[in-house]
Specification:
- It is a single chain.
- By secondary structure, the protein is mainly α.
- It is about 75% helix and about 0% strand.
- The protein is globular.
- The protein has one domain.
- It starts with a helix and ends with a helix.
- It is a multi-pass membrane protein.
- It is found in: Endomembrane system.
- InterPro entries: DUF1232.
- Keywords: Membrane, Transmembrane, Transmembrane helix.
- It holds the Pfam family DUF1232.
C-alpha cells in the first residue's frame, strides 16, 4: 500500500516535471522542479487540515490522500507508465478543483516551497479560463 502510494506520487512528480518543462521551457531550474514533489505532498496535507477551508475541499483532499495510499486504482499500477498516470491525473484534477473553489491564495498560504515552485503549481492547478486573463 505504501509502495503504491510512493510510486504514484513519484509518477505524478515526473508528469509535473514534464508539464513544467513544456509549459515554461528554461524559466525554472531543474533543481527547483525536482524539489516540488515534497512540497506538493506537504501542500495537500496542509490544505486537508485547514479548518478555515470549506468542508468539501478538505474532504476531497483527504479522499485524495486515501486514494493515493490505497492499493486499488482505476488503472492498476502494475501496468507500465499508464498504471500511475491515473494517480497523477487525479492529483491534478483535485488541485484544480481546490484552486477553483478556494482560490489561488489558499495554495499560496499553505505552500511550503519557493515562490517559483508555487507559481509552477498554480500554473498547473489554475483553471484554463483564468490562464488567459
Amino acid at each position: 500500500m505504501i509502495v503504491g502510494a510512493a510510486a504514484g506520487i513519484a509518477v505524478f512528480w515526473l508528469l509535473l516535471v514534464v508539464a513544467l518543462m513544456r509549459a515554461n521551457p528554461g524559466t525554472m531550474p531543474v533543481t527547483d522542479v525536482l524539489r516540488l514533489l515534497p512540497d506538493v505532498v506537504r501542500l495537500v496535507r496542509r490544505l486537508a487540515g485547514d479548518p478555515t477551508l470549506p468542508r468539501g475541499i478538505r474532504i476531497r483532499l483527504t479522499l485524495l490522500l486515501i486514494y493515493l495510499a490505497a492499493p486499488i486504482d482505476v488503472i492498476p499500477d502494475f501496468i507500465p507508465v499508464i498504471g500511475y498516470a491515473d494517480d497523477a491525473l487525479v492529483v491534478a484534477l483535485v488541485l484544480r478543483s481546490v484552486t477553483r473553489r478556494a482560490g489561488a491564495h489558499a495554495l499560496a498560504r499553505h505552500w511550503p516551497g519557493t515562490p517559483e515552485g508555487l507559481a509552477a503549481v498554480q500554473h498547473i492547478a489554475q483553471p484554463r479560463a483564468h490562464r488567459r486573463a
